[in-house]
């Protein structure tokens, strides 16, 4: 036999409000994480532009020094410098956009908390949140710099049996 009381029982008072409040709070967190993903994509794109600009500049410089490059020697290095500057500009605009968007999101969340629609207690401050995002990059940049300094030139060996 099925217990009819289990199907007719009413939810506790305020349950739907608590669920809606949690859903709204999670929506704010999801929006913030989406903005972080967008910033990571901007950082990746700008680093690609910068590294492509440095590579283009260095290749053009070496080809020009060896008189292999027959077109205008100044054209290609300027293109490389332009890519580097474009990458820096994209990075700057992306960071400014991210900071502005997060300020608006925090103010919207603060307003919703003041209206009593969601709970406002958070164990993390904005400073801890920002340091949590920046801290890994400090070690990544340091490790990459130390790795670049420790590189040694590689000698090419001749294949055995081929002398000529």
Produce a short descriptive summary.
Helix content is 74%, strand content 0%. It is mostly helical and 164 residues long.
Can you offer a commentary on this structure?
The protein is mainly α. The chain has a domain at 29-121. It contains four helices and no strands. The chain has helices at 4-8, 15-65, 75-114, 126-150. The chain is rod-shaped, with a radius of gyration of 28 Å. 4% of the residues are buried. The model has no long low-confidence stretch (mean pLDDT 76).
Cα-atom Rg, whole angstroms?
28 Å
How many beta-strand elements? 0
Biggest β-sheet strands, sense, barrel: none
Average pLDDT, all residues: 76
What helical percentage do the residues reach?
Answer: over 70%
Which key phrases capture this entry?
4 helices; 164 residues; rod-shaped; mainly alpha
Present the secondary structure layout.
Elements: H1 4-8, H2 15-65, H3 75-114, H4 126-150
